[in-house]
């Protein structure tokens, strides 16, 4: 039986790190917007600070997520001009705050399940 070169290396911490970070980006973008209004670059910096670098969304990730959140009514934005450049300042909506609470509840369930699995893996 040959090994498929396209299958992920599940023994690689990098594989798991990338998978986890990708999933957490949406969660943490809402998290930082619950604290205050921010533009895209500051959202990314705040996520990095909040997660101590564990989650570091890139431009190619953050703006599609913000567009999705805007279209879904989870965030709104206002455009302002700074140094001749337009930028969007994003604000979480009540719907976005509720979505964050739902996400937090699910995250806590997952954390408990992972803790339960960790105990079994050590046995």
Sequence of strands across the biggest β-sheet: 1-3-2
Determine the fraction of residues in helical runs and give it as a percent range. 55-70%
End-to-end C-alpha gap: 31 Å
> Poorly predicted ranges (pLDDT <50, ≥5 residues)?
none
Q: Tally the beta strands.
A: 3
Range of strand content? 5-15%
Shape: globular
Give the count of helical stretches: 4
Q: Specify Rg, calculated over alpha carbons.
A: 18 Å
Mean pLDDT: 89
Q: Would you list the SSEs in sequence order as H and E?
A: HEHHEEH
Instruction: Characterize the main sheet.
Output: 3 strands, antiparallel
Name the structural class: alpha+beta
Describe the structure.
Strand 2 and strand 3 form a beta hairpin. With about 120 residues, the chain is α+β, with helices and mostly antiparallel strands. About 60% of the residues lie in helices and about 15% in strands. The chain has a three-stranded antiparallel sheet with strand order 1-3-2.
Question: What keyword list fits this structure?
Answer:
3-stranded antiparallel sheet; 3 strands; 123 residues; alpha+beta; 15% strand; globular
Topology:
Elements (H helix, E strand, L loop, with lengths): L12 H23 L2 E2 H11 L8 H13 L3 E8 L2 E8 L1 H29 L1
Antiparallel strand pairs: 1-3, 2-3
Helix pairs in contact: 1-2, 1-3, 1-4, 2-3
